[in-house]
Write a structure and sequence with these properties.
Helices cover about 15% and strands about 35% of the residues. It is of the alpha+beta class. It has a single domain, classed as 2,3-Dihydroxybiphenyl 1,2-Dioxygenase, domain 1 (Roll). It has an eight-stranded mixed sheet with strand order 2-3-4-1-13-16-15-14. Strands 6-7-8-5-9-12-11-10 form an eight-stranded mixed sheet, with helices on one face. The radius of gyration is 18 Å and the shape is globular. The protein starts with 7 loop residues before the first strand and ends in a 5-residue tail after the last helix.
């Protein structure tokens, strides 16, 4: 891997009901619960990580399921659509499965020459299943109902909706190393060649669209991938030089992070590959029990009492 931004690391969204969220992503979409932990700033709230077998960067969708937070809605200054890569010929399976489970979805459409099935999770979070124009050879997590011929491979893209794309595009191109691939209407596709998958960022320019409200059914932040701590701090310097306010390095147990708000209003994170999700659980047991940040381990009994039951 090159010493560059390596596409998407993870995406974090907000849910309004922990059990509904857990059931939808593990049972309907067939993702693996890679890590079950709590919010660093609110240990009475879960932090779920869903992904492939080992939580490969570029496959991880995470949630803060804040019970009763209320409904959010998308708008400018937000990440508005999450794209998952799926195998060719799988969209029919997913359309039927969504009907079976009463999942809100639309008809298949085409964008940038790729077939897309838009759908929403129980909170209204907007997602797309996308058959990529280039083959995706990542190994998916499979279940008894979602096999390798149809299972999601990880992220294809993230879409940001902005009043004006210019300043955000400059972050992508001048700092992150993305290039403008093409434009369709008000959507601009940026892509990096540093990695094959989870490499697309679409920017929608919507000057007349009002800002959204961050709550259930919306994205909280988008994390981009770097190889290690050294690269993380190199990028911190690059971002700070541009005059943007960026956090110190933060230990998130499974990766190290920096956060900054890009000029269009979206909260960006940079996150490392190391140390990974097997630091406190073997691969065959990932997500099987509640893991707590060390500062909360002494309060485990109290925390477990307030967290919603998932079974």
């Amino acid at each position: 891997m090159e010493n560059r931004i390596l596409g998407l690391h993870h995406i974090t969204a907000i849910a309004g009901n922990a059990k509904e969220n857990f059931d939808f992503y593990t049972k309907v979409l067939g993702l693996r619960m890679v890590k079950k932990t709590v919010n660093f700033d609110d240990p009475g709230t879960y932090h779920f990580y869903f992904g492939d077998e080992v939580g490969t960067p570029g496959s991880i969708l995470t949630f803060f399921p804040w019970e009763g937070i209320g409904q959010g809605y998308t708008g400018t200054g937000m990440a508005t659509n999450i794209g998952y890569s799926v195998p060719e010929g799988s969209l029919g399976f997913w359309a039927e499965r969504f009907k079976q489970f009463n999942v809100r979805h639309e008809d298949t459409l085409e964008r940038f020459g790729e077939q897309i099935l838009p759908f929403q999770d129980p909170d209204g979070l907007k997602l797309d299943l996308i058959v990529p124009s280039d083959s995706d050879n990542r190994k998916p997590w499979v279940t008894s109902e979602v096999n390798e011929q149809v299972a999601t491979k990880g992220f294809h893209s993230i879409t940001l909706t902005l009043k004006n794309i210019k300043a955000t595009a400059t972050i992508l191109t001048d700092i992150f190393g993305y290039k403008l691939l093409k434009q369709e209407g008000d959507t601009y596709r940026f892509i990096t060649d540093a990695i094959k998958n989870a490499a697309v960022v679409d920017l929608i320019e919507a000057p007349n669209t009002p800002p959204g409200r961050g709550a259930a059914g919306t994205n909280h932040h988008v994390a981009f991938r770097v190889k290690d701590d050294n690269m993380l701090m190199e990028y911190r310097e690059k971002i700070a030089v541009k005059g943007l306010s960026i956090t110190p390095k933060i230990d998130r147990d499974y990766f190290f992070s920096l956060y900054f708000r890009e000029p269009g209003g979206v909260l960006f994170e940079l996150a490392t590959d190391n140390p990974g999700f097997t630091r406190d659980e073997p691969v065959d047991q990932l997500g099987s029990r509640l893991k707590l940040p060390k500062q909360y381990e002494g309060s485990r009994a109290e925390i477990e009492k307030v967290l919603p039951r998932l079974d």
